[in-house]
Amino acid sequence: MELIKLHGIEKTYQMGDISVPVLKGISLTIKQGELVALTGSSGSGKSTLMNILGCLDRPSAGEYWLEGVETSKLSTDERALLRNRKLGFVFQSFNLLARTSALENVAMPLSYTAEPLSDSEIKKRAAEMLGRVGLADRLSHYPSQLSGGQQQRVAIARALINRPPVLFADEPTGNLDSRTSEEVLQMFERLNHEDGITIIMVTHDPKVAAHARQVICMNDGLIQNNDPVVSPEQKTPAEIS
Amino acid sequence: MRVLTTARTAFTALRRNPLRAMLTTLGIVIGVGAVIAMMEIGAGSKAALNKSIASMGANVLVIRPGSASSGGVSFGAGTTTSLTPLDCQAILRECPSIRNAAPMVRTRAQVVYGNRNWVPNTIYGTTTAYLDVQDWSNLALGEPFTERDVLNANRVCILGQTLARELFDGESPIGKEIRIKNIAFRVTGVLSTKGSNMMGFDQDDVILAPWTTIKYRVSGTTLANSNQSTASTSDSVNTLSNLYPADQTSLYPEKSSVQQANHPMPVRFANIDHIMAAATSAAEISTAIDQITEVLRERHRLQAGEPDDFNIRDMAELTRTLSTTTLLMTNLLLAVAMISLVVGGVGIMNIMLVSVTERTREIGLRMAVGARGRDILRQFLVEAIVLCLAGGAMGIILGHGGSLLVQFLLKWPVETSPSAITLAVFVSAGVGIIFGFYPAWKASRLDPIDALRYE
Ligand SMILES: Nc1ncnc2c1ncn2[C@@H]1O[C@H](COP(=O)(O)OP(=O)(O)O)[C@@H](O)[C@H]1O
Ligand SMILES: [Mg+2]
Fold first, then answer.
1. Residues lining ligand 2 (ion), CB within 5 A?
2. In CATH, what number is assigned to the domain containing residue A175?
């Protein structure tokens, strides 16, 4: 099933009189349960594309269907709801709230969901989520008391607290050393494998890209190649069941 | 997002910078504190002022006989003799809004003691009720005359301070005899100082005596020799019989059979110059006037169309002054409150704008995980309200403490005002909403991606 479908997506920034075209017509489809790596040289427009995919930004032209819904026609509030329920986003710079415990950071998206949850339920779900990213013993730590890898795992837990079907990660390992990078990537693989979450991540590192089953390479605002890398031992959950 | 969660988030945000939060609310604290302190002190002084204005006679009514006229010529107010002491008693008995009432007769005559003499402004013949009506019951010396003195027309009197000074010059006047028109009066008491009234009239230049004594022994007018167009204070020939009264005065003069036949009305045994009545409070004055009018019209057997044969005057000027003064004070307080709260509110707005700018990335992040514009708006608005309410609460404590201190140190009258406190709470919340709205609205209008990229 097609989870994401882009058709002729363009993004042009207006810098005074000059217009800077960053995305020049991107079309692609991503199926449910995929693990996609988005690569390309710096400045090729990967982050711009990710922001559009994450419904944080609107394209200048083109269409973006998410689960069959054309998102560029949605109102601001509907997009906020979409981000809350359907999309998880992990940033390169973690973006955790300072002086706020890991638990509260993870629980934060829940306070914007429509159906009200009780305090204890919110706590329980956030603690469970932190347990899944291996931070069950760090619930009340502040971001400043956590290592980079741990902070990124808190951010991943926050992105997943509402059980979204898709997770976007813009250079999630960019600020991490190689060992912790490996940990985070393994976690992505596990989430993709065990929970069937579709993951799309931006990376420069070919080693990281090797974890992915599909690699999209961007160059100067266009998709250069779109290789499905399916090795025999890495099957989609749909194929396994 | 639930209110409780929002409030908690606001508290967390404010706790991050407690010193700044406190300095921000200082304007509100001082504003609310000043309002509370001024309201409490103001309420206390207002009560004290009301009391002293009451003693100036704000709730006193003067009932005078109407004007007589003959052939189209009016003789002016007080020229009929329609009021009697019984009217006074009826007013006291039948008007619930009247606290006390005193019949008054008035004369002016020379007073002699030893080799000194003096002509007081007025010699009033009245009852002891007069002292209560005028809020003058605390005598400087001695005692007032009694009801019995009034009934027996005893020659006793109370002196005003001016008289005590002019006639006695330091000597105690109690028990001494003074002469008014050659009639000896024993001084039973001396009034306390009252000073001049609003017209500059020396209120201490007065003698009070039983109205019966003044009426029958001094001014000597009775129904028999006062006709409809002469003032009741007209003098009569003084005789030695007043010096050595042989018989009791008769309160009920004999009527001839012709009079009886002409006037089958109950006998009017005496008329008085005016009646002074005190309403239970200044606010009751208009009801009191209505009640008195009703009672007197009935007693004087006036038909529906007939004009009143009396008129009632109150100290409307005084009560008006009182109400304008208090209104002025209230408005002044309000203006001060407004200014300080606006200043406080601008402080809140300023710091909220700084806070929104500082936390742009946080706003972007919250939007990225699904916060709608209105969630952000509510968060910052609640933060501003929490700030203002905290400031208001501190202001209430400060203001109340301040007024208690004033009461303790300066012995000023102070009244705790619950309405001022509720008002302060609502006003500080209102200031939070008004001045917090723009920064919150600005925050809610941010674009998630711009906010996330902000540095
Ligand atoms: N807000 C912006 N305004 C103007 N130009 C921008 C903006 N954001 C990105 N760009 C430009 O778009 C291009 C692509 O940026 P980006 O998507 O961040 O690249 P990547 O993530 O692939 O390194 C860059 O040349 C950058 O200068
Ligand atoms: Mg980038």
1. A 47
2. 3.40.50.300
pTM value is 0.69
Q: Show the domain range for A7.
A: 2-240
Domain count, chain B: 2
Which distant-in-sequence residues (6+ apart) come within 8 Å of A237 by Cβ? Answer: A33, A193, A196
- Whether residue B392 lies inside any domain: the answer is yes
Which has the higher per-residue pLDDT, A209 or B346?
B346
Asked if B223 and B329 sit in the same domain, the reply is: no
User: Is B2's Cβ below 8 Å from some Cβ in A?
Assistant: yes
Residue A59's pLDDT band (cuts 50, 70, 90): very high
Residues B204 and B296 in one domain: yes
- Return the pLDDT at B108: 87
Q: How many structural domains is chain A composed of? A: 1
Residues B20 and B117 in one domain: no
Domain end: B265, B292, B314, which one? Answer: B314
One domain, residues B226 and B345 = no
Beta bridge partners of B190: B141, B159
Which residue ranges in chain B fall short of pLDDT 50?
221-241, 246-247, 266-268
What is the residue with the minimal CA distance to atom 27 of ligand 1?
A43
Q: Are residues B99 and B218 in the same domain?
A: yes
Assess whether B218 and B327 both reside in one domain. no
pLDDT band at A152 (very low <50, low <70, confident <90, very high): very high
- What share of chain A has pLDDT > 70, as a percent? 93
Closest CA–CA distance from residue B368 to any residue of chain A (Å): 6
Are residues B358 and B403 both part of a single domain?
yes
Nearest-CA residue for atom 17 of ligand 1: A45
Residue in chain A closest to B371 (alpha carbons) equals: A112
| Cβ atoms B333, B39 nearer than 8 A | yes
- Would you state the pLDDT for residue B364? 95
Average pLDDT, chain A: 89
Which amino acid is it at B398?
Answer: L
Shared domain check, B231 and B103 = yes
Please, which pLDDT band fits residue A234 given cuts at 50, 70 and 90?
Answer: very low
- Give a yes or no: residue B247 inside a domain: no
- Around ligand 1, the residues with Cβ closer than 6 Å are A 13, 15, 20, 22, 40, 42-48
Nearest C-alpha in A relative to B14: A99
A56 touches chain B (CB under 8 A): yes
Q: How far is the CA of B225 from the centre of ligand 1 (A)?
A: 117
Parent domain of B422 = 2-53+322-453
B246 inside domain: no
pLDDT given at position B235: 43
In this predicted structure, what is the pLDDT of residue B253? 63
B422: which 2 tokens? Answer: 């509720």
Last residue of a domain, which of B275, B293, B314?
A: B314
